[in-house]
Structure to design on (311 residues):
């Protein structure tokens, strides 16, 4: 229990530092053109990685489970140009359904 | 605020489940709430308590959580041009950064909108800390969030936001490379590493157009 407070303190301090690194050191300044070309691709690269890992990632293995129908349902909802709230709800419902049936 | 609408309820439910889990681990009432209020990064917090749960030491718990949050360093770089003003203000405003607030605040060409970021960040913060408090104090009632398919909800959001980002061929290449790199690394590295390694995919930006 006392150990957990150490975890809380260290992780909290590290996270504050990581989140503020860019704004504190560069705040308000424009990035150089070359850096901007790299940084503007960070969003697609990271978002795609988050999707991939959160759907197929297991404990040090890749798994196919009830999350996959959720992703497929989300993709279909996006094709149908549904608003984001609907996309998210459809994905959760599909995964919940697949899990209940499985 | 409206930008955070699709994700606020999920953040609340995840907050509750974090509170329930932490309390069940015997980590007390106050410490989990303080952690949600200061760390404010769901995946790292879940990782820390799951390491402790499996009898890992505090060093293992800390490194798992910090590794997961290391992605916020490059993310904060993309936010830097949007946050000006005094040092303390930049420090405070940058704490609104979480995956979801950063993702919904994208306005194209790698830029984020400051007001969207902070509005979404504050909304998510209230839900996350409020949810954690509810969870440690008397959660249990809700059961396992996976029953509701909530683990598919965030990737669905990220997919929706990703589609809006795929305006150029280079963006598509970065997305495919990022996802590929991350998946290849999952079996061989600790959680967090695949996501951080995937940021290397943005180096395709150095290619000539």
């Amino acid at each position: 229990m006392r150990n957990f407070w150490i975890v809380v303190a260290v992780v909290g301090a590290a996270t504050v530092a990581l989140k503020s690194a860019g704004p504190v050191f560069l705040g308000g300044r424009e990035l150089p053109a070359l850096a901007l070309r790299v940084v503007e691709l960070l969003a697609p690269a990271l978002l795609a990685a988050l999707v991939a890992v959160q759907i197929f990632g297991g404990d040090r293995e890749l798994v196919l489970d009830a999350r996959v129908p959720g992703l497929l349902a989300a993709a279909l909802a996006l094709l149908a140009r549904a608003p984001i709230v609907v996309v998210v709800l459809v994905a959760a419902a599909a995964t919940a359904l697949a899990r209940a049936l499985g | 605020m409206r930008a955070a609408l699709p994700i606020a309820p999920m953040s609340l439910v995840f907050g509750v489940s974090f509170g329930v889990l932490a309390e069940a681990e015997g980590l007390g009432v106050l410490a989990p709430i303080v952690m949600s209020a200061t760390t404010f990064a769901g995946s790292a917090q879940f990782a820390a308590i799951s390491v402790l749960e499996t009898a890992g030491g505090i060093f293992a718990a800390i490194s798992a959580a910090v590794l997961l949050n290391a992605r916020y360093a490059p993310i904060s770089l993309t936010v830097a041009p949007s946050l000006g003003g005094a040092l303390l203000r930049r420090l405070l405003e940058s704490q609104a950064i979480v995956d979801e607030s950063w993702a919904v605040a994208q306005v194209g060409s790698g830029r984020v909108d400051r007001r969207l970021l902070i509005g979404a960040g504050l909304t998510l913060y209230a839900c996350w800390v409020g949810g954690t408090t509810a969870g440690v104090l008397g959660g249990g009632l809700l059961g396992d969030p996976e029953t509701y398919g909530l683990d598919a909800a965030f990737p669905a959001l990220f997919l929706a936001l990703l589609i809006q980002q795929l305006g150029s061929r280079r963006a598509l290449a970065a997305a495919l490379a990022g996802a590929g790199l991350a998946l290849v690394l999952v079996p061989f590295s600790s959680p967090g590493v695949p996501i951080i390694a995937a940021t290397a995919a943005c180096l395709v930006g150095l290619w000539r157009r």
Notes: The longest helix of chain A spans residues 2-26. Chain A touches chain B through 78 residues (CB under 8 Å). Residues 64-102 of chain A form one domain.
